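**User:** My hope is that you can spare some time for a protein that puzzles me. I have put the entry right below:
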Amino acid sequence: MTAPAYDEIATHEDLVGWSRDYCKDVRREWLVDVRFDLVEWEVSTRAKRRAAALKRPKIPEAEVGTPIDWESTTAAGGRRADGRPFPATLSLTWDAFDAFDREQWESTLRHELVHLEQYQHCGTTDHGSAFKARARELDTEVHCETFSDPKYVLRCAECDALVARRYKDCKLVRRAEEYRSSCCQAALAVE
């Protein structure tokens, strides 16, 4: 099945098809070392804050920057005998796709490819220094753009810099006066 043009995406299947094709192009053009035969794709209509996510098994001994020996790795009660990584799922959020323009969506996909590459090589992923360096190489952000409005916005009371967004009531929101901004060491204001 041929994926539709970006502006013709109308179904979850269309979104997966177009996104998969785009990721394959990125793999070739930007030399991203990933295996798509070990990736499942899905579309979420429930996610409210994340534009996409890489769902993967947790491997306790895995560490970003340390290549993993998949033949001796266990997770989720099983072991791969063939040395291939455990499959991962790239979950795409329909509301984010709907809210973003094409450039934002492509950046989101490149961000997830950094996670996939780290996972397939190291058995885990994070947003640390290795991620930041690879994100720069792929011209993407370390944190994906938000597509929904937070319930609470916390700002520095001194310079009005954004400190945090929260989508539900939490300790930081309830006790904001106990925290200080990293920019000015000033109190936090909750909007």
